Fold:
Amino acid sequence: MLTSIFYKSIFKDFAFLVLRVFTGALLIHHGFEKLNDINNFADAFVRPLHLPFPVALSYLAAGAEIGGSWLLILGLATRVGAAAILGTMSVAIYHAIVTSGFNIYLLELLALYFAAAFSIILLGPGMFSADYLVSNILKSTPSFNFMTSKFRPEPIEKSTYKSSTTRIDSALEKQKKSFDFPFSNFLSS
Structure:
């Protein structure tokens, strides 16, 4: 019972939903702020890094934040949206370190967005996403299953399968009977 409380989470997919929606909803306004005065953003953030085409890169950063945020909120192409946000946050963290050093007040929000995007890339969108629905639709489509069935291994014959499972079951039973908890005699005295 304790392992189910401490290690297994019944709200894992709900936590992914909350992480995606809050990250996207809180980040999207940063992209719109960039679009509001794109030349000011290019002068303040892109030109100090000596990157070419500062206005074009500013539009790219704003588009990555707006588009990536919408993809996170919807859960559609979630890892692509999170990768766009991760790229933008990487450049923003680099800019903050180059211009101000390790100033925690500048880095904390950028690092949180970076960590959220990185976590979403690693863990995926969860069940409450459009990606999950699309994957279930593709799994149930016969034409798609025809293509994936070509790469599945051949089924095992039942007679071979039964004999191997009975051997495994008997070995497991023998192992269960012979297992003693270490130091059990020490703990009982």
Notes: Residues 11-138 form one domain.
